[in-house]
Structures are given as C-alpha cells and as structure tokens.
C-alpha cells in the first residue's frame, strides 16, 4: 500500500486494520475527510487527534445503495406487511385482521408488499370491500407499480376503478405520492431511523429516486440534523425545467446539504414491472400483451438530448427486453452515457451495447430471487437473459448494485449475497448460477467502482468483523459491521472507540 511523502496532522488514525484477502496490518490516517496515508502498522506514529485500534478487523470502502425510494422505505416499516400473503384472499384477511390497529384518526389504511403475479386468485374490488367495509384501504404492490384499493379509498381520493380495484403505472404512482403526504416531522423521524439502520450495515450513500422534488426534502432533513450518509437526490422529467432554472446538474453539491447532498440523475421510467406484467417485452406474456412502453423511443431521445445539454446524467428505468432495446437505441442516438435502472431482461445481442455505449447497469440482485418464479412463469424458457449480471459485466458494462427499497430491503449484504450465490440462505437451488458475480465484483459494484481503499479516497469506510472474501456464504449475507464512517466521522459504531 502506498504512503504519502508528507503527512499533516491527522484527524483520526484507524490502527491495526486488514484489507480483504490479506493478513498484513495497516494504519489508515484520515485527514480533512479523506484517506491521507496508508502505512504498515508499527511504523513511527504520526500525530493524531484520535486513534481507533481496530484490532485486526477488515476495512473496505463504504457501501452505496444506487437505487432507493427513501421515503417509501421508511413508510413501509410502518404499514401492514403483505409480503407473506399467498393469495388475494389471504392478503384481504391480513388487512381485515389489522384494521383496528391501523385506522386510528380516520387515516387511510395502507398495506405494502403484495405479489400477485403467481396468485391463483385475483384481486377484486368486491373482495377488498368485503374485508374492509367503509374504512379506506390502499394496498401497494411490492414493485410500487400497482395499487389495490377499496371503494372507500377510491371515494376519498376521487378515483374511478374497475371491478379489479387496481391502479397501474402512473395512476398508481400518483396515489402512492398522495398516501405519503404525512406530517414532515413524522416522515422525517421514520427516515432517520431507517437511515441509522442502513448506516449500521455499512451504507455511506444512496441515490434517492423518491418521486418528488427531492432536493427540498433533503435540505429540510439535513437542516434538522440528518447526517447518516450521503444522498444524491434524483430528478424526474416533470421537475427538469425547475432544476435547470435553478442551475442544477448531476453531481453538483447542493447548498444547505452540509456536504452530504448532491444532485442525482434524471430518472425516466419507460416501462412497468414484471409482477404487474407491464414490463415491455419483445415477445408476449403467456396471458397476452407485451407490457407497456410508457415513453416512446422518440420521446426518450428528446429527454436524453435535453439531459446532455443541461448536464444531467440520465437514469432510464427499463425492465423488459423490449424496453432495454429502446433505451439502448436512444442512448446511442443521443450520444450520451448514463444508467439503465434494473436491466432485468436483456437479449444476448444487446449485452455488448452496454459496454460500447459506456453505460452503467444499475441492478438490484435481490430481485432475481424474489422474482424468479414470476420470471420463470412469464418468461419461460428465456430466463437465461433474466438478471444477467455476469453477462453484462463481461460485456463491458459498469455494474452498480442497489435494492430499490422498499421493493427489497435497504440491505447491501443481501444484495451482494444474491449477486454472488444467486440463492437465498434457505437451501433452495441457485437460479442461473452462471450469472453470479465474484465477491470482489460485488464489492466493487457496491462501492462505486472503488473495490479497495487508496490514498486520496473519501474517508467513507466500513469496518467488518470478518474477511468478506473468505467468510462463509451465510456470514457474508449477514456480514457483521463493526463501524461505518462518512468523511472520517463515525456514523455507526463510534462509541466502541470513543
């Protein structure tokens, strides 16, 4: 490991640390929020305000979750969990049993996490009305692309629904935003709690794609004391003109953000999701239809050109193979690099285009395990191109791992475990293990390409109780994190070295 020629007084020295795959002990010197020196342990000491002896623990760059809906993730923890419901009737029964505890003050009862793609029965207005009576109820699917509501909720929000009681895509998003309009103090407190839990798992930053004017929300939170991790706040097309007028561009540090807040990418959704059967595909689904292309290729090209002219990095949501083809075509025509969010279903002839166009595949490995049955059902015989992490990486794409929380938990080790094993820790056989990443690949894709710590890097670090390249799969999936630092400041675990 290199050393600097001149070392100023340090704010903090992390002593006796190891790096993954090695046994040699090092001291890391942190100054001004960056790693200023890396030296073998035992060399002459350098003056420091503080020394934390890590006792041989392992140091890695801090982890990023590249795709989060932070408010929705915080809200989900305080709503009815429907993830275990195996049918529409079971989901209605869960809600019915929880009505009394969630309907205080006349508020709409909200459930989250239902997965109807494999249900033998189907959601209906009649079924949910029968279970809930006159209490307004809205149930959000796990992928956030569908909302099942009852008649009382439809009346409350002035909506018209058919016999299914379902809203999909933009109408679902609009209602989801409305359901999140709780007092700022309440939501921000929930966000702080969720953020502290994320910091305890080694998270030092997120890209937040909450569907709102995010810069203002995060300025408010930072002003109130939020300091758990860095945030890149995404912008949606409806707010692009405002962002441009305010002089924003992707990567710009925002005033009032205490050094933690930057402008994120321009998020553009062009298709739906697998569970809702709205992901836009080349071939039809078994039930018919190819899903929804919600933004045409011409419209997408226009947005990408505008992003290029205004300094925004585009992040295009594309799940189906048809949508990924449209996105790739538009990126090529616009002559701009950027991100494709999800890239869940990609034809073999399109893998190389990710690398050729300099694109990042912002992927959520846990979805491969959550959605494997739905993928096998809807994309039967073609799932060798589903969640193709190894193929994308081999073709030259840059991978960036995330959760899409609340679609999957904001838990980076779950994502990395899914990426490296293609299996949960439940004994079930791996799904398309040929698409697995190595652990080093997964760490690199979770640390913005850093992979390992170098002098001059931001002092955004995670301290681990085990070697992430050597522990068992079970330990890796639940990796014990002893401490997390952002810009050399402990955001988790600091009490142990105070």
Strand content: 15-25%
Mean pLDDT: 94
Helix fraction bin: 25-40%
Structural class by helix and strand composition: alpha/beta
Q: How is the biggest beta sheet arranged?
A: 8 strands, parallel
Summary of the model, kept short:
This protein is 31% helix and 21% strand.
Account of the 3D structure:
With 498 residues, this protein is of the alpha/beta class. It contains 17 helices and 21 strands. It has helices spanning 70-76, 88-102, 125-132, 151-156, 170-179, 184-199, 214-223, 240-245, 297-310, 321-334, 348-356, 366-370, 372-378, 389-394, 412-421, 439-445, 473-477; strands spanning 12-17, 26-31, 34-40, 51-53, 58-61, 63-68, 80-81, 109-114, 137-141, 146-149, 166-168, 203-208, 230-235, 261-269, 314-318, 339-342, 360-363, 398-401, 461-464, 481-486, 489-492. It has an 8-stranded parallel β-sheet. Strand 20 and strand 21 form a beta hairpin. The protein is globular, with a radius of gyration of 23 Å. The two termini are 27 Å apart. Residues 1-9 have low confidence and may be disordered.
């Amino acid at each position: 490991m290199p050393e600097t020629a001149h070392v100023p007084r340090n704010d903090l020295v992390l002593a006796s640390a190891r790096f993954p795959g090695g046994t040699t002990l090092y001291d890391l010197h942190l100054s001004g929020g960056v790693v200023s020196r890396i030296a073998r342990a035992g060399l002459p000491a350098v003056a420091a305000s503080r020394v934390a002896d890590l006792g041989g623990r392992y140091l890695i760059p801090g982890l990023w979750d590249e795709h989060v809906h932070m408010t929705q993730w915080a809200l989900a923890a305080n709503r009815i969990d429907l993830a275990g419901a195996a049918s529409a009737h079971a989901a209605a029964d869960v809600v019915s049993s929880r009505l009394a505890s969630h309907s205080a003050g006349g508020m709409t009862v909200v459930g989250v996490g239902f997965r109807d793609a494999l249900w033998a029965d189907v959601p209906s207005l009649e079924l949910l009305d029968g279970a809930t009576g006159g209490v307004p109820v809205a149930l959000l699917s796990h992928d956030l692309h569908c909302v099942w509501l009852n008649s009382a909720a439809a009346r409350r929000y002035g909506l018209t629904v058919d016999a299914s009681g379902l809203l999909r895509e933009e109408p679902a998003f609009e209602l989801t935003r409305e359901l999140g309009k709780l007092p700022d103090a309440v939501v921000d407190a929930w966000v702080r709690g969720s953020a502290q839990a994320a910091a305890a798992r080694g998270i030092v930053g997120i890209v937040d794609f909450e569907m709102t004017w995010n810069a203002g929300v995060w300025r408010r939170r930072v002003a109130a004391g939020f300091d758990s991790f860095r945030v890149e706040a995404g912008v949606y097309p409806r707010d692009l003109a405002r962002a441009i007028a305010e002089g924003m561009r992707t990567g710009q540090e925002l005033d009032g953000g205490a050094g933690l807040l930057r402008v994120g990418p321009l998020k553009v959704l062009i298709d739906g999701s697998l569970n809702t059967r709205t992901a836009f595909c080349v071939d039809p689904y078994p039930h018919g239809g190819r899903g929804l292309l919600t933004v045409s290729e011409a419209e997408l090209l226009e947005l990408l050109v505008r992003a290029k002219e205004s300094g925004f990095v585009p992040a295009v949501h594309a799940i189906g193979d048809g949508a990924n083809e449209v996105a790739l075509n538009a990126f090529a025509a616009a002559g701009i690099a950027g991100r494709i969010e999800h890239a869940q279903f990609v034809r073999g002839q399109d893998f190389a285009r990710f690398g050729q166009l300099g694109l990042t595949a912002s992927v959520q490995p846990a979805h491969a395990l959550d959605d494997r049955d739905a993928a096998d059902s809807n994309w039967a015989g073609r799932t060798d191109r589903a969640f193709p992490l190894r193929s994308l990486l081999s073709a030259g794409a840059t991978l960036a791992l995330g959760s899409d929380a609340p679609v999957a938990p904001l838990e980076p080790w779950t994502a990395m475990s899914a990426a490296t094993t293609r299996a949960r820790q439940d004994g079930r056989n791996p799904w398309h293990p040929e698409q697995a990443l190595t652990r080093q690949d997964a760490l690199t894709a979770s640390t913005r390409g850093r992979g390992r710590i170098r002098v001059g890097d931001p002092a955004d670090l995670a301290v681990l109780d085990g070697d992430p390249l050597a522990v068992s799969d079970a330990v890796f999936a639940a990796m014990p994190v002893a401490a997390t630092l952002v810009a050399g400041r402990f955001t988790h675990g600091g009490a142990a070295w105070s």
